[in-house]
């Protein structure tokens, strides 16, 4: 039987596996730049960084399978290509970024050691945790996540009660959509699809005799609890950044801003607390990504232990190679990949959440094809080729917000369901 305590542990695990490097450094700068529109930015950010990821967990609870099941209604070949692409992006960008953030905020200020050394030690530890994957839920849920929450609450509470509610002028032309697009950089929608599989497998290992419906409800509850926690923390971090709009230079970097916020709120103990926070939040995310990738490859090779081991090694080696670059560089490199893969991931999550009668094979195919086609202008714009198709892109609704795929995907969904009936 799955108890309330089990649900709480899974909730903590989900929260911690979601709350990684991007989640830590992105909200404060959003608030810093948003001025009195901080609440609009927060809503946009939480739409793509909380609501969609939680839908991803609900989809996993419904499917009770692997990431391959998310796109198999389009076609098995498409699903396989999509899975390999997502996992390749995951271990090449968000996973290494956790090491880069840890180095810039938790290692370099104290020791001045090279980033390559940090990446090597960091991913050796990641490898140890991934190989001992049966203990992931216990270690993450019981020990690491509560410590992360306590430190964050201290920073946010000190900012709210210690600073005047005085906001500057927003630097965003469209605060809501700016928040949505910044939420892409958390990789949380992708994380839900990837990490959700880790949670499902971990629960099944310990509760293999529990009925499907009971496990589904437990996972859904855990997803909702973790989503509420993420929403509250994100809102607090955005508000904290907004309250300190006069405390730092306007061009301050994400990592420097977070360090500054900690110094302003927690004083002399800030550096130690912040280094712990970064280490915990980033490390747990990296473990989840590498373990999820290894699980998928293991499943594709008939549950081969060697496949799991080799994939874990490859993921950690890629982490070492990319993790030695600075955070700004990794974020810039990630933009084109996100502009293409994120819309596809979002529609797949939503299609797997809606009732089956509205998500036939035809609906999946039409919506995904429309999303891919109308994501191309945003992708080309992100690599500097937007001018070549500006005439076409200007005719697409919401293209000025880099969200031209939304309306075509919705229209495809409605037409496909009409034809099916």
Q: What's a quick, concise take on this entry?
A:
With 421 residues, the chain is mainly alpha-helical.
CATH topology of the largest domain: Amino acid/polyamine transporter I
Arithmetic mean pLDDT: 84
Biggest sheet architecture: none
Query: Which overall shape is indicated by the principal axes computed on the Cα atoms?
Result: globular
Strand/helix succession: HHHHHHHHHHHHHHHHHH
User: Which stretches are low in confidence, meaning pLDDT under 50 for 5 or more residues running?
Assistant: none
Distance between the termini: 41 Å
Strand content: under 5%
Helix content: over 70%
* The CATH superfamily title of the largest domain: Amino acid/polyamine transporter I
Rg over C-alpha atoms, rounded to the nearest angstrom: 21 Å
Number of domain modules: 2
Number of helices: 18
CATH architecture of the largest domain: Up-down Bundle
Secondary-structure-derived class: mainly alpha
CATH class of the largest domain: Mainly Alpha
How many strands?
A: 0
InterPro entries: Brnchd-chn_aa_trnsp_Livcs (IPR004685)
Keywords: Amino-acid transport, Cell membrane, Membrane, Transmembrane, Transmembrane helix, Transport
Subcellular location: Cell membrane
Transmembrane segments: 7-26, 38-58, 70-90, 110-131, 143-163, 183-203, 224-244, 272-294, 306-323, 329-351, 363-383, 395-416
């Amino acid at each position: 039987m799955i108890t309330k305590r089990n649900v709480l542990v899974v909730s903590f695990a989900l929260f911690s596996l979601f709350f990684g490097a991007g989640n830590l450094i992105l909200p404060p700068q959003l608030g810093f730049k948003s001025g009195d529109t901080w609440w609009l930015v927060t809503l946009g950010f939480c739409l793509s960084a909380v609501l969609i990821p939680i839908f991803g967990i609900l989809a996993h609870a419904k499917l009770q399978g692997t990431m391959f099941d998310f796109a198999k209604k389009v076609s098995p070949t498409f699903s396989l290509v999509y899975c390999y692409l997502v996992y390749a992006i995951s271990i090449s960008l968000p996973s290494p970024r956790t090491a880069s953030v840890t180095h810039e905020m938790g290692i370099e200020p104290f020791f001045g050691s090279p980033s390559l050394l940090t990446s090597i030690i960091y991913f050796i530890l990641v490898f140890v945790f991934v190989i001992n994957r049966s203990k992931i839920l216990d270690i993450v849920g019981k020990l690491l996540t509560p410590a992360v929450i306590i430190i964050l609450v201290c920073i946010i509470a000190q900012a709210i009660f210690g600073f005047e509610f005085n906001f500057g002028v927003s630097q965003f032309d469209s605060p809501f959509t700016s928040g949505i697009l910044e939420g892409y950089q958390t990789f949380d929608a992708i994380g839900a699809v990837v990490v959700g599989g880790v949670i499902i497998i971990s629960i099944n290992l310990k509760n293999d005799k529990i009925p499907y419906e009971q496990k589904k409800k437990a996972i859904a509850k855990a997803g909702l609890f973790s989503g509420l926690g993420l929403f509250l923390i994100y809102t607090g971090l955005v508000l904290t950044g907004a309250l300190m709009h006069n405390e730092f230079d306007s061009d301050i970097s994400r990592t420097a801003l977070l360090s500054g916020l900690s110094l302003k709120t927690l004083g002399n103990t800030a550096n130690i607390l912040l280094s712990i926070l970064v280490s915990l939040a980033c490390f747990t995310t990296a473990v989840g990504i590498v373990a999820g990738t290894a699980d998928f490859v293991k499943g594709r090779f008939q549950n081969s232990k060697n496949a799991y081991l080799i994939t874990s090694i490859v993921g950690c080696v890629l982490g070492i190679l990319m993790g030695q670059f600075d955070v700004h560089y990794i974020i810039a490199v990630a933009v084109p990949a996100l502009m293409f893969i994120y819309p596809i991931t979002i529609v797949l999550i939503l299609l797997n959440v809606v009732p089956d009668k509205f998500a036939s094979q035809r609906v999946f195919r039409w919506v995904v094809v429309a999303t891919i086609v109308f994501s191309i202008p945003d992708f080309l714009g992100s690599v500097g080729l937007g001018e070549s198709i500006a005439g076409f892109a200007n005719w697409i609704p919401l293209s000025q917000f880099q969200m031209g795929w939304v309306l075509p995907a919705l229209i495809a969904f409605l037409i496909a369901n009409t034809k099916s009936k």
